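Now for a concrete sample entry.
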Amino acid sequence: MTWVTWRQFRTSAALGVAVALVVALALALGWQQVSSLYTSSGLASCSTSCADATAAFLRSAKAGLPGLAWMLGVGAMYLLPGLLGAFWGAPLVGRELEAGTYRLAWTQSITRRRWLAVKLALVGASSVSLAGLLSLVVTTAAARVDTANANRLTPLVFGARGVVPLGYAALAFAVGVASGLLLRRTVPAIAATLGVMAVVQAVVPLFVRAHLIPPLVRSTALDTEHIQEFFVNQDGEVTIVMDPQLSGAWILHNEAQTAAGAVFTGPADSTVCGPGTTPGGCVEWIGTLDLRSVVTYQPASRFWDLQLLETGLLLVLAGLVLGWCFWKVRRLV
């Protein structure tokens, strides 16, 4: 049974590995240039007051091949799970049901569950392993840029680093197999898998990830020296965005609040913030209002904690979906 499964899977496996090698090669070339830029910018030898060296390094690293390789790495890690689920998971059982070849397999000496278990073990392990290896390459190649950017926790970067791609690959594979079992047609199963994974990869960062660990809240007196953005519209409504000064943190909410805990939106004092006034006078007026800067955030130190929790959640979901597949395969006629 293992040999038969491998014979069916080897062409898809060879194609997937070939694509992964191309991506890895591009990342390796980009990484070499990034290493040179890291040294030439002075960031490698900098120990204090490194803002200028960091800015110079990031400007160079985001241009040309290094920048292209960075974007390729992020794109590859978001596309890979869905593609593995669609083209390795969905046809695994769906193609057998569509072609009717499952009838021959089930008349042999193996049970339905063993038939499914062998397929899942070989192809599923290959899917997760490929995602893991590519994630290792991407994470390593982008390490210096991520450190300089201090943005590993932001939703875009977080999902393309560490062990989280393994969890998405496992879930995508499970969804693909389940889609094939449910729809019994390969093409609809592929479309369903891609659609489900697109929704999952959008919903988890937006509504789930930030709450895997309760976020921290920091409330301090508003310091006008650290106002990052300040707007007053024609109706006198005020928008204040403070510099959170939390390197590497994922900022969930950044608000200026009144002493009563309400978000401050004005109205602005037209005598100091209206036409003909100077921005400095308006900022001074803000400083007299006894406002507070309230930041809700996930600190940079929680990167691996969030990685492990999200991966664990995805693996549990994958296990539940595969459990349904074993239940379903016994009831197929």
The mean pLDDT is 85. The CA atoms of residues 76 and 110 lie 38 Å apart.
